[in-house]
């Protein structure tokens, strides 16, 4: 009888100890995915550093760009994808990119989703044939949010910060 009680007690202790790991695993998984995404972006051979938020005077020549080979996720986006694009977010998971596309779409933006060779999803808010047009549009949109007096509007509404926007030069 004593051995049975000890065995049951050990089994319960074992279940409690290892049963509480699941929430920690999902927390670790999200942190791991975010770190992996940053690592992939930093290790991308064809990438240049992310640009800082633009000043009120657009500086087209000094705006840095990342060069990547990307393909549209949806065939319907293929015609809208040009040489230079304004990227508002980079995501490792397609559902997150699709959710952001939907939120921006609800506000009238025509979002394009692309995927690079490393499997990362890029959420594009505007795409143009020239770098100057892309930088001007990026600055225009960001100035709109600055003018609202709430620079955290993008973060609170869409879950993305201002300083993560960048210009993508499409490689073919």
Automatic annotation (TrEMBL):
| Signal sequence region | 1-19
Q: Where is the composition biased (Polar residues)?
A: 43-63
Keyword Signal on this protein? yes
Report whether Signal shows up as a keyword of the record: yes
The domain of life is Bacteria
Fetch the InterPro entries from UniProt: SPOR-like_dom, SPOR-like_sf
The residue ranges of the SPOR domain are: 78-157
Keywords per UniProt = Signal
Question: Residue ranges of region Disordered?
Answer: 39-64
A Gene Ontology molecular function term of the record: peptidoglycan binding
Q: What is this protein called?
A: SPOR domain-containing protein
Q: Where is the organism placed in the taxonomic lineage, from the top?
A: Bacteria, Pseudomonadati, Bacteroidota, Bacteroidia, Bacteroidales
């Amino acid at each position: 009888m004593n051995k049975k009680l000890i065995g049951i007690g050990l089994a319960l202790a074992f279940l409690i100890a290892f049963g509480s790991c699941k929430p920690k695993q999902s927390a670790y998984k999200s942190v791991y995915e975010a770190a992996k995404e940053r690592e992939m972006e930093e290790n991308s051979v064809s990438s240049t550093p992310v640009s800082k938020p633009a000043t009120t005077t657009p500086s087209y020549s000094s705006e840095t760009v990342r060069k990547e080979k990307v393909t549209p996720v949806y065939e319907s986006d293929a015609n809208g994808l040009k040489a230079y694009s304004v990227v508002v977010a980079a995501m490792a998971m397609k559902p997150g990119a699709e959710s952001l596309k939907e939120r921006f779409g609800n506000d009238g933006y025509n979002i394009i989703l692309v995927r690079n060779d490393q499997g990362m999803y890029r959420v594009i808010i505007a795409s143009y044939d020239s770098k100057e047009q892309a930088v001007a549009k990026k600055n225009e949109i960001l100035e709109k949010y600055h003018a609202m007096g709430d620079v955290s509007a993008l973060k609170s509404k869409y879950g993305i910060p201002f300083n993560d926007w960048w210009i993508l030069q499409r490689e073919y």
